[in-house]
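Quick one:
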Amino acid sequence: MAAAVMVMVMVMVALTVCINVDVAAGQGLCKMTQEGLTACKPSISTVKAEANPSEACCSALKQANLTCLCSFRNSNLLPYLGINPDLAMQLPAKCSIAPPQTCN
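Output:
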């Protein structure tokens, strides 16, 4: 399940690029702001990813709706957008966040 949560985090960052207009208009993706998504990207990047997420990333992830993010876990956009799915799946654990009970 932790792996699925990480994948969904990567997907949300990827989808931010696709829905940038909504986020810029004050909307968020699964209760994460554009700033939160941006803060997490260095930890899940396919190019020189940082070993540990920033405090800003973890704070944003703690506010996020992880169940909502699960709905994006199977997206093929992640690698295309420079997001390493394996690193994304590790993000909640690195932020000491429990994964959601269900992640279909």
